[in-house]
Amino acid sequence: MPSPVYTLNTAGRSHSGPTGLVPQMLALFEAAGFAEMISPGDAVAIKLHCGEWNNTAYLRPVYARALADRVKALGGRPFVCDTVTQTYGQISPRATGLDLLITAERNGYSAATLGCPFLVADGYNGTDDLRVDVPQGFLLKEAYIAKAIALADVLIVLTHFKGHPIGVIGGSVKNLGIGAQSRRGKHNVHMGGHPTYGLGAATDFHPERCQGRACPKWEACEACCPWGLFHVTETSIEWEREKCANCLSHLGATTACGVCDHPEVTVKATCAAMADACLATMETVGRDKVGFINMAIDISPFCDCVGFADMPLTPNVGIFAGRDPVALDKATLDAVTAAPGMPGSAAFDYEAGESGAHKFSAASAVHYEDISEEIQLHTGALNGLGSLEYELVTVPPLANASLYSYPDARRNREKYGPIFAKEDPFPGELYDGKGYHRVDVVDLDRVSSTNGQGE
Ligand code: SF4
Ligand code: SF4
Q1: Ligand 2 center to residue 390 CA distance, Å?
Q2: CATH classification of 3-192+264-401 is 3.40.50.11440, yes or no?
Q3: How is 439-451 classified by DSSP, letter by letter?
Q4: Could you tell me the distance, in angstroms and rounded to a whole number, from the CA of residue 371 to the centre of ligand 2?
Q5: Which ligand is closest in space to the CA of residue 224?
Q6: CB-based contacts of 426, cutoff 8 Å, min separation 6
Q7: Is the distance from CB of 393 to CB of 7 less than 8 angstroms?
Q8: Distance between CA atoms of residues 407 and 395, nearest Å
Q9: Which residues make beta-bridge pairs with 319?
Q10: Nearest C-alpha to atom 8 of ligand 2 is from which residue?
Q11: Could you tell me the CA-to-CA distances from 429 to 169, 323, 420, 436 in Å, in that order?
Q12: What is residue 155's three-state secondary structure?
């Protein structure tokens, strides 16, 4: 059975108030039946990616704010949330609850902007989680779900759809499959300690290529691992690989010189595990209590978890919503594939700028040759997460302006008449009623012409 995926035929464009991206998103929220999931008093988690320090493609907070306002109007008690990250790189600006809150606030996510709390869903050290079994899992048999998400009554998954250097795509499946896992759960999904797919097992390690302490970067290599597993000697490097948790922090330090690689098999396994962890999250919250929204705008090649954002790979392709994250990501991915590449973007750097080209395989998973964009989705079809078959349901833009809640919807005469009667902002009593000191007539044709000379 194909799963319904709701969208508008605006392709991510706007040309009027009701077709603005916020009303479009709310129109899909209603059309996909998300309002019916919420009962008065429900704790409603709005899960999103708050963006890395200095990333600029993450979703503007207004989308979460509009969803939170709608949830409150329905009687729910919303909170917006994200989870702490693995340490990932040399410096990690979201790897404790404190750092995540500071980064989120810098990116505009706070109670003041959202009208509801912003929570670190897995706590200060990423261990505030609920362990659940995943008997249907393709690769994972357990998951550690961020507790604030696992215990919520309703979950709205608001996703910026873009590329990802490991996930290949960053859509709804990844937003839960990595983003709803605690840090402890992220180590699981990233294959920490796995006897076949973990970095400790699968890395092609070449200590003979290391210059040892003669290398100007040796101190960075010793400092990169939170567990202190790398030891640079006078002439080489040692690695306690059997203890590796797959936090990924050493990759930037040791891959450029060829001492370590980032094995493709680890990446593929991680993509598959994301679908298992997404499934675990949905089953824990309750399948009938989870709704997904993909915002396919500002489609950057790398995830919002990197500290920069490149030009989008394609123009905006639109907003999509549904209950089946596999169908939703598949529909969104198909729309990106069908779109022409953005001139000047990385899609053309990697010869994937044509309509029909697999832009994320080419320009997001740049370290791998032709890795599939659909590992998460194929795994999700196997483990019962969802369906690769979808039916696009096109809905009209929002007709009911009350749903996007202006702070004061009174018309101008009623609202501003009394204010202007007390203090008139137009100085009509000056300059014979003209208000300001200006030239009565000038040669506008001259400055409107192409050369500024009237020609
Ligand atoms: S692993 Fe590479 S970067 Fe690190 S000390 Fe050795 S040669 Fe230098
Ligand atoms: S050795 Fe493992 S635990 Fe240490 S930095 Fe590398 S990936 Fe992380």
Answers
A1: 40
A2: yes
A3: -S---HHHHHSTT
A4: 24
A5: 2
A6: 435
A7: yes
A8: 26
A9: 295
A10: 247
A11: 62, 61, 14, 10
A12: strand
| pLDDT tens, residue order, the chain (455 aa) | 899 999 987 777 888 777 889 999 999 999 999 999 999 999 999 999 999 999 999 999 999 999 999 999 999 999 999 999 999 888 889 999 999 999 999 999 999 999 999 999 999 999 999 999 999 999 999 999 999 999 999 999 999 999 999 999 999 999 999 999 999 999 999 999 999 999 999 999 999 999 999 999 999 999 999 999 999 999 999 999 999 999 999 998 899 999 999 999 999 999 999 999 999 999 999 999 999 999 999 999 999 999 999 999 999 999 999 999 999 999 999 999 999 999 999 999 999 999 999 999 999 988 888 799 999 999 999 999 999 999 999 998 766 666 666 778 889 999 999 999 999 999 999 999 999 999 999 999 999 988 877 77
Per the CB < 8 A criterion, the answer to whether 224 and 92 are in contact is: no
Give 140 Cα–ligand 2 centroid separation in angstroms: 21
Residue type, 321: A
Distance between Cα 251 and ligand 2 center (Å): 8
Query: DSSP label at 310?
Result: P
Which ligand gives the minimal distance to the CA of 190?
2
Q: Which residues pair with 290 in a beta bridge?
A: 155
Q: Is the beta carbon of 257 within 6 A of some atom in ligand 1?
A: yes
Residue 213 near ligand 1, beta carbon < 6 Å? no
Structure tokens at 386: 């969802």
| Cβ(202) – ligand 2 distance below 6 Å | no
Closest ligand 1 atom to 260 CA: 1
Distance CA 16, CA 20 (A): 6
Ligand 1 site, residue 156, Cβ cutoff 6 A? no
Domain ranges (residues) in the chain: 3-192+264-401, 199-254, 421-448
